[in-house]
Each structure stands twice: as structure tokens, then as C-alpha cells.
Specification:
Blueprint lengths: L6 H11 L17 H16 L3 E4 L5 E5 L9 E6 L12 H16 L8 E6 L12 H6 L5 H5 L9 H7 L15 E7 L4 H5 L3 E7 L1 E10 L3 E2 L11 H18 L3 E4 L3 E4 L5 E2 L2 E10 L2 H21 L3 E10 L2 E2 L2 H13 L4 E6 L5 H4 L5 E6 L15 H19 L2
Parallel strand pairs: 3-4, 3-5, 5-16, 6-15
Antiparallel strand pairs: 1-2, 2-4, 6-14, 7-12, 7-13, 8-11, 9-12, 10-12
Helix pairs in contact: 1-3, 2-3, 3-12, 8-9, 10-12
The structure holds (2S)-amino(hydroxy)ethanoic acid (HGY) and manganese (II) ion (3 copies).
Pfam family, one: M20_dimer
Family: Belongs to the peptidase M20 family.
Protein name: N-carbamoyl-L-amino-acid hydrolase
Length: 408
């Protein structure tokens, strides 16, 4: 008999947690380590305590909710995701995976079931990387790939540091927690793309997550008065950016399965009657094929130098983050497919174009992910939505995968 989660309770929990940073346009703005993130973290603590979980917070603010199994010496099973959101994010990105983990704990409690293995549900700090760059800070630190002091020193646009903000919201743990070796890790997440909806498939099973390359670019021109300065006597940093932005898009478009995007642009002084003297902008390049992705990176870097010269400006190119792709565990991928099938759900192999905390956890723990459709393929936007029915279906698959591995 396939156990199922409680769909009404899952919907209620997701609705209530979405109020933390909720916007009047139906989205969520819960940037990492803000008051909204703190309040949501506090609520998660209350709910997981009701589910009977022990709670540990490590020195980078990762929250581990532990439901003890019968055999404490066995390597545990992990699931979880992130509570922080984009500035104008959606109600499901990240938090769905944590709340589904909570619902599984409630479901096991209600059924009087204790797994053989510990079950650990995690809230990973600063997955989005929007306020503090890079992203997946908590999971990257846990995996030993990001240096804690460097992460503590990261600053947001107002000059506040990650370490100070962690302290301020009361989530800077005193010691780390390392349950490794772990038996398996599953991350349940919305697809954030159009494939499942277009194909009419209920469950997505990524074979892995693409590699990512993030840049900060500084373009230096000469600020001047827009009126008296002749067009052929300008060193306009915004014009240089315009040339660069178009080329970056074109190089991504021409490449084979690589995406290249500019997300942030900050001109200085950003005044309508001043020729911009400086532009800071960001580039995000990703692809499953690392050679092709790095070829595009080289093309982009070469273009930035060429186009800066064309516009009479200087350019500084800083690669601020790169993480290799994460190929998931074949046997856990098969387990997710078979669990979906046992529940009467169709499933599809795919690649995750979005990054997730599992990109780091996968480094030393066999991992797999479970996707459910995003309506209209939209995410990282307030319109982000997944039907309650699909939220429950994905949670049921996670429950099945956790029970199978938790009792194996
Ligand atoms: O950027 C990403 O792919 C993730 O959603 N933060
Ligand atoms: Mn996410
Ligand atoms: Mn996201
Ligand atoms: Mn004037």
C-alpha cells in the first residue's frame, strides 16, 4: 500500500509559510538573513518541534531537523531545500522541499512509523545568492567547498555582512553538525521551467544539475554632461554595456544548450542627464556540457574586452563563482521513477537548468531530485505557481523514497 501525505495539511503549511515575506501580488520576498527569513525560520522551528524533530543550527545558519530512527548508528537519509527567496520570488521555490519534509515527519508520526534510519530535513542558508553572492552558501560550506570566513565577509548592497546578519537574526550556530556519511539525499523542488507542463508529465527526475559560472563586470567610462558632449567624444559606460549585453545574449543563443544571462545592471551615477561613468553588471552562464559552457565563457570574456575598446572604456572581468555540474545517483534516480510509477504518476528524465543545494550535497552523498510542474513554466517571479495536487503528488513521491531508503 502506498502511503500518502496529508494534502490539506501540506497546503495549509505552504500557505502559512508564504505569509512570511508575502507580497500583495501573491509572491514572496524573503531574502536570506532578513527579518522575514528569521521569522520563517522561527516558524519552521516551532513546526518541526511539534513533529518530534531535534533541531541543530550550524555556524553558517543551516538548520537540521532530525527525526531519530530505530538504529542510530545507520547512515541517515537527508532531504530539504532553502527558505530564502528572490527579491520578487514565488511561494514554492525552495520552501516546498522543506515543508514537504515536515509533512513527511507529521505523516510518519500519525502512522506511528519510526524508520530504521534517522531522517534529516534541512533548511540550507542563502541558496539564492541574490543578497549575498555566491548562492548555495550553506550547502557549499557544509560540503567543504566554500570557506566560512569568506562567506561571513560577503556583503550586500548596503554593506551589511553575511556574518553580522546571521548574528543579528540569531541563527549563527556555535558548532557545526556533520551527519556524514549519509545513505541518500533527496531534494524535492518545483521544476521552474516549462517541460513537465508542456509534456503533461507529473514528476520530473533530473539526471543532474548544470554547471554554473557567475561574473561581476565593471565597465569604466568617463562621466560627463549629456548636453554639450559631442556623440563622437564620449566614453559612455552604458553604451559599452549595451553592446556587451547584446553580444552575451547572442553568444548564449548561438551555443548548444548553454544559457547566458545578465540579471543585474547598476549604472553610476544613474542620472538622466549624465553620461554614465561606470556600470557594474552580472553574468550567469550555465550548461550541462562543461566544455561548451566554458567555451561560451571564453567567447564572452573576449567580447567584453573587444567591445569595451570599441566604446572607449575599460572593463574588469571577475569570475566570482563557478561550480561543476552534479550528475545524480543512478540507483536513486531509478528509485524516484519506480516510486512515481507505484503511485500512478508519469515521470520524465531531464536536466535541471536551475541550481539547487543538492549541487553541493551530491559531492559526497548519493543524491536525486524530484520535480513537479511549474504553471506556465514560470519561476523567480511572483506568478510562480504549482497546483496543490502536484505539490501533494511530489510530496508522496518523496515520502515513498524516504521510506524505501530510510528502511533499507
Ligand atoms: O539560480 C538558481 O538556479 C537557483 O534557483 N538559485
Ligand atoms: Mn530553489
Ligand atoms: Mn531559486
Ligand atoms: Mn547642470
Amino acid at each position: 500500500m502506498n502511503m500518502r501525505t496529508n494534502r490539506d495539511r501540506l497546503q495549509k503549511l505552504l500557505t502559512e509559510i508564504a505569509a512570511f515575506g508575502g507580497t500583495d501580488r501573491g509572491g514572496v520576498s524573503r531574502l536570506a538573513l532578513t527579518d522575514e527569513d528569521r521569522d520563517a525560520r522561527d516558524q519552521l522551528k516551532r513546526w518541526f518541534a511539534e513533529a518530534g524533530a531535534e533541531i541543530k543550527v550550524d555556524t553558517i545558519g543551516n538548520m537540521f531537523f532530525i527525526l531519530r530512527g530505530k538504529q542510530l548508528h545507520l547512515p541517515p537519509v537527508m532531504t530539504g531545500s532553502h527558505c530564502d527567496s528572490q527579491p520578487e520570488g514565488g511561494r514554492f521555490d525552495g520552501i516546498l522541499g522543506i515543508i514537504a519534509g515536515l509533512e513527511i515527519m507529521y505523516t510518519l508520526r500519525d502512522a506511528g512509523i519510526q524508520l530504521e534510519r534517522d531522517l534529516i530535513v534541512v533548511n540550507w542558508t542563502n541558496e539564492e545568492g541574490s543578497r549575498f553572492t555566491p548562492g548555495t552558501t550553506g550547502s557549499g560550506y557544509f560540503a567543504g567547498k566554500l570557506d566560512r570566513d569568506k562567506m561571513y565577509a560577503l556583503t550586500d548592497r548596503n554593506g551589511l555582512t553575511l556574518g553580522d546578519e546571521l548574528e543579528r537574526i540569531g541563527y549563527k550556530g556555535q558548532e557545526d553538525f556533520d551527519p556524514r556519511p549519509m545513505y541518500a539525499n533527496f531534494e524535492y523542488h518545483i521544476e521552474q521551467g516549462p517541460v513537465l507542463e508542456q509534456r503533461g508529465i507529473r514528476i520530473g527526475v533530473p539526471k543532474g544539475i548544470v554547471c554554473l559560472r557567475w561574473y561581476d563586470i565593471e565597465v569604466q567610462g568617463v562621466p560627463n554632461h549629456v548636453g554639450p558632449t559631442p556623440m563622437n567624444a564620449r566614453q559612455d559606460a552604458l553604451y559599452a554595456f549595451a553592446l556587451m549585453g547584446k553580444r552575451i545574449y547572442e553568444l548564449g543563443l548561438a551555443a548548444d544548450n548553454v544559457v547566458a544571462s545578465v540579471g543585474e545592471v547598476h549604472p553610476t551615477p544613474n542620472s538622466r542627464n549624465v553620461i554614465a561613468g561606470h556600470v557594474h553588471f552580472t553574468i550567469d552562464i550555465r550548461g550541462w556540457n562543461e566544455q561548451e559552457t566554458d567555451r561560451v565563457c571564453q567567447e564572452v570574456e573576449r567580447s567584453l574586452i573587444e567591445l569595451a575598446k570599441e566604446a572607449g572604456c575599460e572593463v574588469a572581468i571577475n569570475k566570482v563563482w563557478e561550480v561543476d555540474r552534479a550528475p545524480f545517483d543512478e540507483s536513486l534516480i531509478a528509485l524516484v521513477h519506480s516510486t512515481a510509477r507505484d503511485l500512478g504518476l508519469t515521470s520524465l528524465d531531464m536536466v535541471s537548468g536551475a541550481s539547487h543545494d543538492t549541487i553541493y550535497i551530491n559531492k559526497d552523498t548519493p543524491s536525486a531530485m524530484i520535480f513537479v510542474p511549474s504553471i506556465g513554466g514560470r519561476s523567480h517571479a511572483e506568478v510562480e505557481c504549482t497546483s496543490w495536487e502536484d505539490c501533494a503528488a511530489g510530496a508522496d513521491v518523496l515520502l515513498g523514497a524516504v521510506i524505501k531508503t530510510g528502511n533499507s
